[in-house]
Amino acid sequence: MIVFGFSKDSSKKTQNHNLKLYNDLSKNMAFAFKDTAKLTGFAENSVFQLILRLVCFAHGDASRGIVFSRFFNPVSLETLALFMTQINHVMCQWSSGIYRRHGKSQAFTEVNNSVYHAEYLQELRNWEAVNTEVVLKIRKRMYLRAREKSGIDPPAIKAVITGDLKARMVSELAARTGETDTEDEKDDDMGSMQEGEGSDNGAVVPIDTATASD
Q1: Is residue 22 within 8 Å of 95, Cβ to Cβ?
Q2: What pTM was computed for the model?
């Protein structure tokens, strides 16, 4: 993983470098932090943005992150736990200091990785519990940054109320307090109809549909 600095060079020096890097990143879930040395910025390592763009924003407006944005904005804890599980799976290929590709028996499956996913999800829930509001904002920003970096703009929504109609709406609301249905409330038409029934003063009289055809 170039993101973290692993190398496929076969020298002894590189092997020692890879081994130390693997151990350092694995300890305390350092790979999940923005600063892997100081362990700050949990769940904000740049690799999450990379995975998010590749998985969710790789197909323009047809990308999962756009079509199903309600499932990705904000990025869920479950999604982050899955990313962490994937990262751990890939890093394990460097655990000896030399890159060794996983065989079929070590494929990325639920059976092989459910324990890791559960562990990471619990750590993410603990993180969220520290400050729910801030963590929510971080997860929303993850989505927005990934979309912006992918060059995908949100679908434009054309305004219907414009021009004179909008100006009239502005003027109307400026004269209102919002405390009543209208500022100069009068009896509605139904009330007027009821009061005028049976009189000859021009009121509208309901038609008896049963005798209308006689």
Answers
A1: yes
A2: 0.67
164 or 187: which carries more pLDDT confidence? 164
State residue 1's pLDDT score. 62
Q: How confident is the model at residue 193 (pLDDT cuts 50, 70, 90)?
A: very low
Q: CA–CA separation, 117 vs 113, rounded Å?
A: 6
User: pLDDT digits over 111-124, tens only?
Assistant: 889 999 999 999 99
Q: Domain coordinates of the chain in residue numbers?
A: 12-149
Spatial distance between the Cα atoms of 104 and 99, rounded to a whole number of angstroms: 16
Using the CB atoms, write b or e for 194-206: b if 16+ within 10 Å.
eeeeeeeeeeeee
d(CA 150, CA 56): 10
d(CA 72, CA 131): 20
pLDDT at position 2 = 65
* DSSP per-residue letters across 142-190: HHHHHHHHTT-PPPP---SS-HHHHHHHHHHHHT--SSSSSSS----HH
Helix axes of 132-149 and 46-56: crossing angle, nearest 10 degrees = 60
Q: List Cβ<8 Å contacts ≥24 apart for 37-45.
A: 42/127, 43/80, 43/124, 43/127, 43/138, 44/138, 44/142
